[in-house]
Design brief:
heterodimer, A: 236 residues, Ubiquitin-like (UB roll), Alpha-Beta Plaits, three-stranded antiparallel β-sheet, 10 strands, B: 180 residues, alpha/beta, Rossmann fold, 6 helices, binds iron/sulfur cluster
C-alpha cells in the first residue's frame, strides 16, 4: 500500500498518494491549473511556469508540476497575484516569437491562444521582439516553424521518453534558446527520426505541424499520447 | 458619455489593415440601426470628412502603424479623441503587416518591386508615404484605452464594446475575444 498524505488545495482537504506533485494532487481534486509544458505521460520539467501556485509560508510562487505534494501543505491555485503572473508569462511568450494567429495552422486549436483568451489577455504590454526565425520544411511529412515555438520541450520529452529516439534538444540559453534536431541538423537529415509524429501531436502550438495543413487545419491529438503512456504504465 | 440627448461623436480609421475590421463593424446588423440613433459618425472610410476632427468621443482604429502617415494621423487622433480603441489584430498585435518586420525596409521593397520584376522595376518614391522600420501595434506609439483583438473581431464583440461605451461602462472582454 502506498503512503497517503493529506494537504489543503484552495481550502479543500485532498488525500493523495505520496509522490504526487501538487499539480497531480490538484487534478485529482478536480482543479484545473494551466500548463503549457506539463503533459500527462511525460516527465515534468517546470519550463513554462504557468502552473505556479502559492504555498502558505513560502514567499515566492512555486511551479506545481515539479513541486512534490507534502503532508500538511496549504496550496492556493487561483489568486490575483497568480493570475497577474500567468498573464505576464503568456504575454512574454507572445512577444518573444512571431505569433500571427490569423495565418497559423493551429489557429483556433492552439493551447497558447486558448490560454491567452481564458486569462483575458487582449494585448501584449511588452514590446515585440520582431526577430526572424527559420522554418524547417526538410522533413517529408512534418514542418517545424520556430516562429511559433515556446520551447516547452514536450517534443523533446515525448521523442526521448516514449519513442526512444531523442531527436530533439534545446540549445542556447534564455531568449536565445532554440529547439535543435540531433546535433543541429535539419529534420529531413535526422537519421534517428522514425517519423512517428508524436512530437507533432504533443506540441501545444503551431510550431510542429503536418505538412500541407492550411490555416486552422492542424488539430493535435495530444490526449492519445497521454492515453498511450497510461496503457504502457508508469504514469501517476 | 451618458445616454444623453447629445449623440456621441465616433470616428473610424483605417491604417495598415485589409478593411476586414470595418466589414465586421458593418456586420453588426440590426445593432447598427440601434447605434445609429446614438452616435454621429464624424470621420472614417465610411464618411466624407478629409481632416480628422476635434473633440471626438470614441475612435476605432483598424490596422497597424506602418508608415510616417499612419503615425502622424494616429498622434492627431490621440490628441483629439477621448477613447481610442484598437480594433482587430493588426492594431492590437501588428498581425500580418508585421510579418515584414524581420526584413530591413529597403531589402523588403527591393524584393517586391525589383527582384524578378520585368516591367518597369523600381521602388515607387512619389505619392506613397515612407515606411517605418516596423509595422507595429498602436500601443507601441500612443496610449490605447481598449484592445479588441480578432482577425477580424467578431461583430458581436464590436457591438458589445460600442454599447457598453455608450452606456458609460468599460467593456470587460475576458473570454469574449481572441487573437486570430
Ligand atoms: S501557435 Fe498559437 S498563439 Fe502562435 S500564432 Fe499559432 S495559433 Fe497563434
Ligand atoms: S517524428 Fe517521432 S521520432 Fe521523429 S522527431 Fe518526432 S517524435 Fe521523434
Ligand atoms: S516545437 Fe512545440 S512542443 Fe517542441 S518545444 Fe516548441 S512549442 Fe514545445
Amino acid at each position: 500500500m502506498p503512503n497517503m498524505i493529506s494537504l489543503r488545495i484552495d481550502g479543500e482537504l485532498v488525500r493523495v498518494e505520496e509522490g504526487h506533485t501538487i499539480f497531480q494532487a490538484a487534478e485529482a481534486a478536480g482543479k484545473q491549473i494551466p500548463g503549457l509544458c506539463q503533459m500527462k505521460g511525460l516527465s515534468p520539467v517546470g519550463a513554462c511556469r504557468l502552473c505556479v501556485v502559492e504555498l502558505a509560508g513560502v514567499n515566492r510562487l512555486l511551479p506545481s508540476c515539479t513541486t512534490p505534494a507534502q503532508e500538511g501543505m496549504s496550496v492556493t491555485t487561483q489568486s490575483a497575484r497568480i493570475k497577474s503572473y500567468r498573464r505576464m508569462i503568456v504575454e512574454l511568450l507572445l512577444a518573444e516569437r512571431n505569433h500571427i494567429c490569423a495565418v497559423c495552422v493551429s489557429n483556433n486549436h492552439c493551447e497558447l491562444q486558448a490560454l491567452a483568451m481564458k486569462l483575458g489577455v487582449t494585448h501584449v504590454r511588452y514590446t515585440y521582439a520582431y526577430r526572424s526565425f527559420p522554418v524547417d520544411t526538410s522533413h517529408p511529412r512534418f514542418v517545424l516553424d520556430h516562429n511559433r515555438c515556446i520551447v516547452c520541450t514536450r517534443c523533446v520529452r515525448v521523442c526521448a521518453e516514449m519513442e526512444g529516439a531523442h531527436v530533439w534538444d534545446v540549445m542556447g540559453r534564455g531568449v536565445g534558446s532554440r529547439l535543435v534536431c540531433e546535433l543541429n541538423r535539419s529534420w529531413g537529415q535526422a537519421s534517428s527520426c522514425t517519423g512517428c509524429g508524436k512530437c507533432v501531436q504533443v506540441c501545444p502550438t503551431g510550431a510542429l505541424a503536418e505538412k500541407g495543413c492550411a490555416v486552422e487545419e492542424m488539430i493535435k491529438r495530444g490526449q492519445s499520447i497521454s492515453r498511450l503512456a497510461e496503457t504502457r504504465g508508469g504514469v501517476l | 458619455m451618458s445616454a444623453a440627448a447629445v449623440k456621441a461623436r465616433v470616428a473610424t480609421v483605417w491604417l495598415d489593415g485589409c478593411s476586414g475590421c470595418h466589414m465586421s463593424l458593418l456586420d453588426i446588423d440590426e445593432a447598427l440601426a440601434v447605434l445609429a440613433g446614438r452616435i454621429r459618425l464624424v470621420f472614417g472610410p465610411l464618411v466624407d470628412a478629409q481632416e480628422f476632427p476635434e473633440e471626438v468621443d470614441v475612435t476605432l482604429v483598424e490596422g497597424a502603424v506602418s508608415s510616417q502617415d499612419d503615425l502622424r494621423l494616429l498622434q492627431a487622433i490621440r490628441q483629439r479623441t477621448k477613447l481610442l480603441i484598437a480594433l482587430g489584430d493588426c492594431a492590437v498585435t501588428g498581425n500580418v503587416p508585421s510579418m515584414r518586420n524581420g526584413l530591413p525596409v529597403k531589402k523588403m521593397l527591393e524584393s517586391i518591386y525589383i527582384q524578378g520584376v520585368t516591367t518597369a522595376p523600381g521602388v515607387p518614391k512619389t505619392g506613397v508615404p515612407s515606411l517605418l522600420k516596423h509595422a507595429s501595434p498602436l500601443h507601441e506609439s500612443v496610449r490605447v484605452d481598449l484592445h479588441v483583438p480578432g482577425c477580424p473581431p467578431k461583430p458581436e464583440a464590436i457591438a458589445f464594446v460600442l454599447k457598453e461605451l455608450l452606456d458609460g461602462r468599460k467593456p470587460d472582454l475576458t473570454g469574449q475575444v481572441k487573437f486570430g
